[in-house]
Specification:
By secondary structure, the protein is mostly helical. It contains 13 helices and five strands. Strands 3-5-4 form a three-stranded antiparallel β-sheet.
């Protein structure tokens, strides 16, 4: 059945799409959706990897985690697609480069192709097509205007916060952002100086696991430009990060307990010092009272004995 239908790339982040193990068909669509629609690049272990249209750089390990497959199954699947002349793939040191062979055939503009292949239409058909094409173009431009802050290389702070909070609805373990502070706005501007960071961020949030003991916060993504790249390229070790988070939490609890014990010990010492001081004051007071009593008895006529 010829023709096309539009599917938003946000589908790739939806919990329904990521639920359960992928099959061959959904994995194939996933590869097409994750491929770059224009030239881009990302950094892996300090090395910048350039990608052309129709290419993606994902390790087999990360694809296995996303599709809930074993590494062996991912390897066999990619080899099968290559034998079917659907992709080419090769390991380039720090990741696996996957090239969708017929990417343009799957992502070409339907209206342009139709216009090229149907050259025997009547004048009225051409006029009607021109109207529909103009309306479609205007509608597409409106859609691009509405979503440019999401899929482009720049996003306003409020749009970024809204997108993040929509993600929280799909992945509840993430922390909702209530306000874009001045510090967050500055960091967002700094991150977007790299034109590849925002598209990489989109890929990274699509790759976030639904569960886990540790989930990155928005501030964690904004902290530096490498965090998004590490997740997008499949080089992020969730288990170690989770263990590190648990270790940090234990350390904080331990430090809090130490501070509490130190405060209690200090309070005990202060109470003991106060008690000792009070005893000294009482002793001096009693001694003074006894001394006054002796003086009083010594000066009394009853105790003056004359020889």
């Amino acid at each position: 059945m010829p023709g096309y239908f539009k599917v938003s790339r946000e589908l790739l982040e939806h919990k329904i799409w990521l639920k359960g193990p992928f099959n061959d068909g959904s994995a194939w669509i996933d590869l097409i959706g994750l491929a770059c629609w224009k030239e881009s690049s990302f950094i892996s272990r300090g090395i910048r990897i350039k990608l052309k249209r129709g290419q993606l750089g994902w390790s087999m390990k990360k694809l296995g985690e996303r599709w809930q497959w074993s590494p062996g199954k991912v390897k066999r699947y990619l080899e099968w697609l290559e034998n079917e002349h659907q992709i080419e793939h090769k390991i380039i040191g720090v990741t696996t480069l996957i090239i969708i062979t017929n990417y343009d055939a799957y992502q070409a503009d339907e209206h342009k192709n139709e216009h090229k292949t149907n050259t025997k239409r009547t004048l009225n058909e051409h006029i009607q097509e021109g109207k529909e094409g103009k309306e479609g173009k205007e509608e597409e431009e409106r859609g691009l205007k509405e979503t440019s802050s999401v899929i482009g290389n720049h996003m306003e702070p409020d749009d970024f916060m809204s997108r993040w909070n929509r993600l929280v609805e799909k992945k509840p373990k993430l922390q909702r952002c209530l306000k874009m502070s001045a510090d967050r706005k500055k960091k967002l501007r700094d991150r977007q100086k790299d034109s590849d960071w925002l598209p990489t961020f989109r890929i990274a949030v699509a790759a976030l696991p639904l569960g886990g003991d540790w989930q990155p916060s928005m501030d964690w993504f904004l902290r530096n430009k490498d965090n998004a790249y590490r997740i997008a390229e499949g080089e992020f070790d969730w288990k170690n990060e989770s263990d590190a988070a648990k270790k940090l939490a234990r350390k904080r609890r331990s430090n809090a307990e130490v501070e509490t014990m130190a405060s209690e010990e200090k309070l005990k010492r202060e109470r003991k010092c106060n008690a000792n001081e009070n005893r000294k004051i009482i002793t001096r007071t009693l001694a003074a009272q006894n001394g006054n009593a002796e003086e009083t008895r010594g000066s009394s006529p009853l105790f003056n004995i004359e020889d």
